[in-house]
């Protein structure tokens, strides 16, 4: 029986979007030609307030960008799939940097696995009716609780998911989330009627990721930590 792939968790805390993007790029620029030596990661973090748009988004003018920036958020155009969304404090952002040849070499399978991971996470947190629809992301009723937007290059994934935990949902009032008219957004906190922090949700997410992706999870051990303990 083959050993399950190993995925290392990096807890980056709360950082700017540019710093998260740089970290993704650093980790993804490994030897993609040899999946047996590629090291898989999941970056867990919260972003400072930022609006991001994907490769399918067209027509966002400089004036519209300025309007969103004036709210106190950054604005970035990215190479992920999907349309506009918001990331900010209280939202669990997970960026899996994995080589799909260690799992299953299919982006369609990967997106489906991410969806199942978030649905399982919601179930573990006490939400039994989280599901997918014809629209992207994970939904509870007619409200989106998690955005999904990914990118793949030579079987290596970047970008990922944004699960609303205790997010200030007012940030979403200034956009049409993921380009879907007439739908709302929700969070674990709003739906469960108690405050759910990112740390609590991250535990359920990692357990669900390990279950769905059939992989082993380990926390990052850095040289700095080793030096500090000596």
UniProtKB/TrEMBL annotation:
Catalytic machinery residues: 178
Sites annotated Lowers pKa of active site Cys: 144
Residues at which substrate binds: 80-87, 147-149, 160-162
Source lineage: Eukaryota, Metazoa, Ecdysozoa, Arthropoda, Hexapoda
Recorded GO CC terms: mitochondrion
Pfam families (alphabetical): LplA-B_cat (PF21948)
Family indicated by similarity: Belongs to the LipB family.
Keyword check for Transferase: yes
Localization terms from the record: Mitochondrion
Encoding gene (name): LOC115621965
Catalytic activity, reaction form: octanoyl-[ACP] + L-lysyl-[protein] = N(6)-octanoyl-L-lysyl-[protein] + holo-[ACP] + H(+)
EC numbers: 2.3.1.181
Pathway: Protein modification; protein lipoylation via endogenous pathway; protein N(6)-(lipoyl)lysine from octanoyl-[acyl-carrier-protein]: step 1/2
EC class of the enzyme, as a word: transferase
Signal peptide bounds: none
Gene3D superfamilies assigned to the protein according to its UniProt record, in alphabetical order: Bira Bifunctional Protein, Domain 2
Record protein name field: Octanoyl-[acyl-carrier-protein]:protein N-octanoyltransferase LIPT2, mitochondrial
Function as written in the Swiss-Prot or TrEMBL entry: Catalyzes the transfer of endogenously produced octanoic acid from octanoyl-acyl-carrier-protein onto the lipoyl domains of lipoate-dependent enzymes. Lipoyl-ACP can also act as a substrate although octanoyl-ACP is likely to be the physiological substrate.
InterPro entries in alphabetical order: aa-tRNA-synth_II/BPL/LPL (IPR045864), BPL_LPL_catalytic (IPR004143), Octanoyltransferase (IPR000544), Octanoyltransferase_CS (IPR020605)
Organism (species): Drosophila lebanonensis
Entry's Gene Ontology molecular function annotations: lipoyl(octanoyl) transferase activity
SUPFAM superfamilies in UniProt: Class II aaRS and biotin synthetases (SSF55681)
GO terms, biological process: protein lipoylation
Annotated keywords: Acyltransferase, Mitochondrion, Transferase
BPL/LPL catalytic domain: residues covered: 36-217
């Amino acid at each position: 029986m083959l050993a399950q792939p190993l995925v290392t968790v990096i807890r980056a805390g709360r950082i700017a979007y540019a710093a998260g993007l740089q970290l993704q790029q650093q980790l993804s620029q490994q030897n993609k030609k040899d999946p047996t030596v590629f090291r898989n990661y999941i970056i867990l973090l919260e972003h400072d307030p930022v609006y991001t748009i994907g490769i399918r988004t067209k027509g966002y003018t400089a004036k519209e960008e300025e309007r969103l920036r004036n709210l106190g958020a950054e604005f970035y155009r990215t190479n992920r799939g999907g349309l506009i969304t918001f990331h900010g404090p209280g939202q669990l952002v997970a960026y899996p940097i994995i080589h799909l040849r260690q799992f299953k070499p299919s982006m369609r399978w990967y997106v489906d696995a991410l969806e199942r991971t978030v649905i399982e996470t919601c179930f573990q947190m006490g939400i039994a009716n989280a599901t997918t629809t014809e629209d992207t992301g994970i939904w509870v009723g007619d409200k989106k609780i998690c955005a999904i937007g990914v990118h793949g290059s030579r079987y290596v994934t970047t970008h990922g998911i944004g699960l609303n935990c205790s997010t200030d949902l007012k940030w979403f009032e200034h956009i049409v989330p993921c380009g879907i008219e007439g739908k709302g957004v929700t969070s674990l906190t709003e739906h469960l009627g108690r405050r759910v922090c990112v740390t609590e949700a991250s535990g359920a997410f990692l357990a669900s990721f390990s279950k769905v992706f059939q992989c082993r999870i380990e926390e990052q051990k850095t040289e700095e930590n080793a030096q500090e303990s000596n």
